[in-house]
Amino acid sequence: MINKKQRAEKIINTLSTYYPHAKCGLEHENPFQLLIATILSAQCTDKRVNLITRNLFEKYRTPADFAKLSPEQLAEEIRGCGLHRNKSRAITETCRILLEKYNGKVPQQRKELESLPGVGRKTAGVVLGVGFGQPTIPVDTHVHRVAYRLGLASGKKPETTEQELMQCIPQHLWQPAHHLFIAHGRELCAARRPSCSKCPLSALCLNYPGGES
């Protein structure tokens, strides 16, 4: 029986070959746009968010642009996104805070990011990792599910999964692993009907008959 670090190495090597172009699915030009897009992505697909932000970022490009809007005005702009009213309030307030406390810049510290409305641990991890190149391994539903099925995490809570992955994956691979797990969760390891017969990791999957235990 292989240990978690060995399992993680095999999994990442296999997924790197299977998804060589795995990367952040949210279109953005800078950390601020990434922050807005990630807030919008809660309970919404990246594809839908990108459709919304392509038009949104043409009109509003800076925190000052967004801060001028009322939550009701922004809600109309992002109506196609789930929970659009809650997100519009979070985004307009976040942009005002960025102007008042951070000179219109997105903070690069987790504590400061997580203090912003609409920003939780996963969102902060995405911004820090993708936007600023810091070593993070944000855990969304795909990462949580894939890590559990492949025996890298207990599956209890996203926060626990993040800690377990950080222990068995080398720090320089946290970001690549994050994107690879998301790609795998979307393409093959779906929540309800995973395509196990097509999966290159079936031999390592604890949920697959004949997989390693």
Walkthrough of the structure:
This protein is an all-alpha fold and 213 residues long. It folds into 2 domains: 4-22 and 137-204, Endonuclease Iii, domain 2; 31-132, Hypothetical protein, domain 2 (Endonuclease III, domain 1). It has 11 helices and no strands. The protein has helices at residues 4-18, 31-40, 46-59, 63-67, 71-77, 84-102, 110-114, 121-132, 141-149, 158-168, 174-187. The longest helix has 19 residues, at 84-102. It is elongated. 39% of the residues are buried. The mean pLDDT is 95.
Annotation keywords:
Endonuclease III, domain 1, elongated, Endonuclease Iii, domain 2, 57% helix, 213 residues, 11 helices, 2 domains
Structure summarized in a few sentences:
With 213 residues, the chain is mainly alpha-helical. It folds into 2 domains: 4-22 and 137-204, Helix-hairpin-Helix base-excision DNA repair enzymes (C-terminal) (Endonuclease Iii, domain 2, Orthogonal Bundle); 31-132, Hypothetical protein, domain 2 (Endonuclease III, domain 1).
Q: What's the domain count?
A: 2
- Can you tell me the overall shape? elongated
- The span between the termini is 7 Å
Q: Identify the CATH homologous superfamily of the largest domain.
A: Hypothetical protein, domain 2
Mean pLDDT: 95
SS element count, helices: 11
Biggest β-sheet strands, sense, barrel:
none
State the assembly state of the protein chains: single chain
Helix-strand blueprint:
Layout: H1 4-18, H2 31-40, H3 46-59, H4 63-67, H5 71-77, H6 84-102, H7 110-114, H8 121-132, H9 141-149, H10 158-168, H11 174-187
